[in-house]
Amino acid sequence: MFVDRAKITIRSGKGGDGCVSFRREPYVPEGGPDGGDGGKGGDVIFMADASLRTLMDFRYKRKYEAEDGQNGMKKKRFGKHGENLIIKLPPGTVVIDQETGLVMKDLVNPGDRFVAAKGGKGGRGNVHFKNSVRQAPNFAEAGGTAKERSILLEMKLIADVGLVGFPNVGKSTLLSVSTNSNPKIANYHFTTITPNLGVVEIFDNGFVMADIAGIIEGAHTGAGLGHEFLKHIERTKLLIHVIDASGSEGRDPMEDFEKINNELKMYNEKLAQKPQIVAANKMDMVDENSSEFLQFKAYIEAKGIKVFPIAAPLNEGTYELLTEAYHMLEKLELEAPEEETYEFFDFEKDEVDEDYREIYASVDESGVYVLNGKQLKKIFDSTNFNDSGSLRYLYKYIEKNGAIEQLKEIGLDEGDTIKIFDYEFEYWEEF
């Protein structure tokens, strides 16, 4: 099954907690602190792998987690860093942050990679909190929190040439006789419901050609499988527009040409501007010198587009068509490739959390005063509530950052209850 879209959740590793430990050696009755630092949590990394063709694996597994960092140990030993998690994707996959809708990375080439979620920093051991006043700190720093994201993966085929046209005009047949591909072919609409790829070998070289499933009127609005089909044309350099020149189903070839190009234009203006060749198929059913065909050919060529009469099942005219495609690609490759325009995710802004050190004061419905904040949560998690020095460190942080003043402004008085996460205490002024 060809899967080209998936939603997953990723989580980096949590940083290991710092260790609270004291030297215990013979003849050293009052050894100082020797708690080591925690290890850094593992990163989540996406990487393009040329051996992958679809996003099938992500259909069954939706959550991916990197390894947490190990906690620090006594004797100033550092905890082990968590293993990074590398998630492999097919080249041509766009990685999107679901919350913002912004593109994190377009993994175009095999080997392209980036860090999507950084692991939390390791917490500092109690050896770092010793000073001239606090000789035996009985607390350490908690490890940095893990980062969790919802990710949308969207794959766009990477092919040099895209075959476009209405259903049942012979695109799959052309692909099969031109390449080593073996697509399913039958004489009814939408035989192809997923894109097929094949390699055209010509002039001791080659190019990749994709059969884009049949487009119908309204495809640009999502009719049929419009959006799923059209997005795979975006990366192609050249389009071969396959048209039933015989009108075997009562269609007008000129109308078909205009309708398909209109769908391309309505979906993305740049698609309609891609170089095109018209493959006038089913010529075994029409006279090449008939007025109808000559009129059609003149109509297309007046737009500066070459027309190649072919009979795909008989492999007639296909060599000339593919030769022209090869030479056009040679010219196009000399030009600077046009980069796709995305609104990219800002990793620097994501790393610099402006609200990290802020403490927020509020009152809940029961009249309890509540303090909240990201840095506050980290210090709270590091607090040893059985140690007066550790509690004093927490209180000093709260006071230094103006939280007590905030609480007083909204009505805090002596005897009132202050809640910090799951810890409650009464507030009294010091004399």
UniProtKB/TrEMBL annotation:
Ranges of residues in domain OCT: 348-429
Enzyme Commission number(s): 3.6.5.-
Positions with a binding annotation for Mg(2+): 172, 192
OBG-type G domain ranges (all copies): 159-330
Signal peptide region: none
GO biological process: ribosome biogenesis
Keyword Cell membrane assigned: no
Top-rank EC class of the record's enzyme: hydrolase
GO cellular component: cytoplasm
A Pfam family hit: GTP1_OBG
Oligomer status and interactors: Monomer.
Function: An essential GTPase which binds GTP, GDP and possibly (p)ppGpp with moderate affinity, with high nucleotide exchange rates and a fairly low GTP hydrolysis rate. Plays a role in control of the cell cycle, stress response, ribosome biogenesis and in those bacteria that undergo differentiation, in morphogenesis control.
Protein name as catalogued: GTPase Obg
Organism of this sequence: Clostridium aminobutyricum
Gene: obgE
